[in-house]
Write a structure and sequence with these properties.
With about 270 residues, the chain is of the alpha/beta class. The chain has 6 helices and 11 strands. It is globular, with a radius of gyration of 21 Å. The termini are far apart.
């Protein structure tokens, strides 16, 4: 084999390797509905602002994280739904919880019907009564801007008469093999997110977007949603998400007095 033939084979092999790499990088869970947490995020050049948290200041004691650095201090909170069943909010307060994100409702991933969380009213009234600050989230399976607006209006109707001091959060997620949103494009999911947040903001509340690192970086276009704060879900000792976020959900198996079983735990970063 001549040197020219060897060179040509090397070039062909290199091209085939690169093509295979590109294919793997373009793989997305939207194609088959597998859980997005299993797919690593692929980083590329972004125009998003980065956070300035110093993780050497992050401390963990008995599963509860705390953070204070310079003028930033984190408040400690939980997020709950009917899955936590009946909560003793007085005990939760005594255990040191500063805030709670309460699920107001959800759209079913099967028939698409909107339902109120069966513990919403109890949780709202009880948390308010013991002096725990409250925010809300809605689990979305909207497949259009119109459905997203419908979800936001539902939330606004349900919270009438309740005290809400933390954001109202749009929580859209894949449900492996079952969800309504797998076929949506990245731009469609981004516009649906924006539509929900716009309705909430127009009503005088602070909207927020929930998602894992993969969801925030690869599934929606966060640059188009830069007006809204981010609630990051990343179950790790230190988050790897490099961009600005206001709240961090760091575990789904925390323990809090007054709650049976595991509960999601969060830090809310506040500038003092």
């Amino acid at each position: 084999m001549t040197r020219k033939q060897i060179t040509r084979l090397i070039i062909i092999a290199a091209v085939l390797y690169l093509c295979g790499t590109v294919v793997s990088l373009r793989y997305r869970p939207e194609l088959d509905g597998i859980e997005y947490e299993e797919i690593p995020s692929i980083e590329y050049e972004r125009t998003l602002p980065r956070h300035s948290y110093k993780w050497e200041a992050l401390e963990t004691y008995q599963g509860k994280k705390s953070y204070q650095y310079d003028n930033i201090k984190a408040k400690w909170g939980i997020d709950v739904s009917k899955h936590q069943e009946k909560i003793s909010w007085q005990k939760v307060k005594k255990d040191g919880v500063d805030f709670a994100m309460i699920r107001v409702g959800y759209r079913g991933y099967g028939n698409g019907a909107i339902k109120e969380d069966s513990t919403f009213t109890y949780n709202m009234n009880s948390a308010n009564r013991v002096g725990i600050d409250v925010g809300l989230y809605f689990f979305s399976q909207a497949i259009s801007v119109e459905e997203a607006k419908e979800e936001a209006q539902f939330v606004l109707q349900q919270i009438q008469g309740h005290k809400v001091t933390y954001p109202i959060v749009f929580d859209m997620e894949f449900v492996a093999g079952k969800d309504r949103i797998t076929h949506l494009t990245r731009e469609e999911k981004t516009q649906i997110t924006k539509a929900f947040c716009e309705v909430i903001e127009q009503a005088g509340y602070k909207p927020m977007i929930y998602g894992s690192r993969h969801w925030l970086q690869d599934v929606i276009t966060l640059e188009e949603l830069s007006d809204y704060e981010v609630w990051l879900a990343e179950y790790s000792d230190v988050p790897s998400f490099p961009y600005a976020f206001k709240m961090w959900q760091y575990t789904d198996s925390g323990t809090v007095d007054g709650i049976s079983g595991g509960v999601d735990m969060n830090l809310w970063f506040v500038e003092e």
